[in-house]
Structures are given as C-alpha cells and as structure tokens.
Amino acid sequence: MAEFYTQLEHNNIRCTLCPHQCMISPQQYGECGVRLNEGGILQSMTYGRISALHADPIEKKPLYHYFPGSVILSVGSLGCNLHCEFCQNHHISQSGYREHLTREMEPEKLIDLAIREEENIGIAFTYNEPLMSYEYVMEVGPLAKEQGLKNVMISNGYINPQPLDKLLDVIDCFNIDLKSFSDDFYKKYTGGNLSPVLNTLKKIRASGQHLEITFLVVPGLNDDEESFGLMLHWIADNLGKQTVLHLSRYFPQYKMDNPPTSVQKLTDFYRIANEHLEYVYIGNVELSEGRDTYCPACKQKLIERNGYKTEIPGLKFDGSCLHCGHQIAIL
After folding, report:
1. pLDDT, tens digit, for every residue of 167-212?
2. Which residue, of 24, 117, 145, 249, is most buried by count of CB atoms within 10 Å of its CB?
3. Taking all residues of the chain, what is their mean pLDDT, rounded to a whole number?
C-alpha cells in the first residue's frame, strides 16, 4: 500500500505525494503511471521492482562534492510525475507500469548487494524519478543507514512538503534537476510548475543535507541569458554561493529534436555562473574547463577529473584546501 492519499466518495482517491494532487478513479493510475487506485486503496506498483542496477562512479550522478572518487550502487525503477519532452530516460520514466521491464528486489537483498560491492559508499536512487518509489526508498534508506551506507537521491524535486520532511530524515544527499527558471517552461515542456521545485531546494538546504543542482541547457527553450541570470541570483540568495551547479548538455531525445547544446553556449553559461557561484561544472561533454574543482579563496586546483577518473591532490581529509586552509563545501 502507498502512503499520502485521501479516500473520496465512490472509491475515488486523492494522491498527495506530489503537487499534481491527482484525483484517481478506481483501477486508474495517477500522472506518474505507477501509483494505482485499487478499490479505493492507493498502491505503489513499483515497490520492490527495479529496472536498472549498476555500480557507478558517484561523479556520474552527477555529484562532484560528495565523497569524490567513490563508487555508489545505483538503482532505478519506473515512472515519473513530470513528462519532460526531452527526457533522456524516457524508456523507463514515461513507460507507465510495465512489470516485464523490472525484476523484484527486496530491500534486504539490495542492502546485501550494496554491502558486498567493493568500495561502495551507499545506494543512489536514480535513473527514473525515485519519488515514484517513495515507500521503497523509505524502507531501504533506514536499513542502509544501519549498515553505515549513504542514501543518495537524483530527483526532479517535485514533491509535497509533508512527504519531503519524512524523506529528509532518510536521504543524505540530493541532486535536484532545476529544469528552467520559468513557470511557463515547466507547464509547457514538463507538465509541472516551478515553485514546488524551488520550495524543495530551500527545504533541502535548510535541512543541512548535501545538495547539488543540475541544469540541462536546452537550445531555444531555457538558454535565455536573462532568465539564467535570474536563476543564478535566486540560487545564490536562497541556497548560498557555495551551492554546486552542474550545467549539462542536451541531446535530442524522446519528443524533442532540437540540435544539441552548443559548446559555446555551455562555456558562456559556465563563465556567467562563475560570477555568482563558487562551484560550477560542465557535464555531458569533454572540455578542459568546467570539470576540475578549484579553491574559491586561493584558486589552487583541489580535485582533478578526467572522465570519471578522479584525483584529489589539493584537499585535506577534513575538506579544507591543502594550500590555504579554506573550508570547501565538500564531503
């Protein structure tokens, strides 16, 4: 059985997990395609069902300031509560519930695999939208913590405050996709709204859990410099200048055939973002800039990245700069 719903007349229910607040008729699914009204009871059809399981470099999430150079067991399922026309994992996020795309993985089995994986620091809930497997995450998470494992979530951040509050007790680290700083963009290209995502970001920051942000730059849709500048100001003012921002290159996927983001646009945005934030990176493209970490105080190189190979020549174990002692926003 799923959490966060209200029973209505005639066996209808209202799902309250995310801002869609779906009213779901009997034997119908919510917007996510995986939470089912079964006779007036909300069922999470993806509980214990996984579509992907891989041991990944943590930098692949992307997470650059959370145990850099480590490995994390990454698990995905099915479904998403947004419908991004440029979704790069649409085969599992937009499929709805399809049992043949998954296999069963009980929480204890997943924990056992995570423990046995060499040099693994924890479990990353990723690939599709992990909030759609909320109950599974909430069961796996505490078990992982008991074994000294970290819980990481890669999410669109489209969740209501009450379930987020419970999630913050379980998840140690988030990377949230901020898809645009325009509500019109969210409505037209994702089927959601901007403000719930901003509220999620502020709640995560206030909780003290580790936070990084990914911004996928889509040509002609969210690459306006004025809007990008407003987003940077908001991040700096509300989340802090030490917030890690990943600028990711778009490639044609799913329903969108716009050409890939130009390298020039990525480097332009990288330089603009560096005027507002201390830690900015470029992803999905091999460039000489935008991949390494530098001390914002003395400008010395602290972490060197070549693909997913990570060297850490300039950091002390406590996360401070080896050269000047400046404390870096890193675990």
Report:
1. 999 999 999 999 999 999 999 999 999 999 999 999 999 999 999 9
2. 24
3. 97
CB 70 within 8 A of CB 60: no
Which H, E and C letters describe the chain, residue by residue?
Answer: CCCCEEECHHHCEEECCCCCCCEECCCCECCCCCEEEECCEEEECCCCEECEEEEEEHHHCCCCCCCCCCEEEEEECCCCCCCCCCCCCHHHHCCCCCHHHCEECCHHHHHHHHHHCCCEEEEEECCCCHHHHHHHHHHHHHHHHHCCCEEEEEECCCCCHHHHHHHCCCCCEEEEECCCCCHHHHHHHCCCCCHHHHHHHHHHHHHCCEEEEEEEECCCCCCCHHHHHHHHHHHHHHCCCCCEEEEEECCCECCECCCCCCHHHHHHHHHHHCCCCCEEEEECCCCCCCCCEECCCCCCEEEEEECCEEECCCECCCCEECCCCCECCCC
16 has a pLDDT exceeding 90: yes
Q: Are 73 and 46 in contact (CB under 8 A)?
A: no
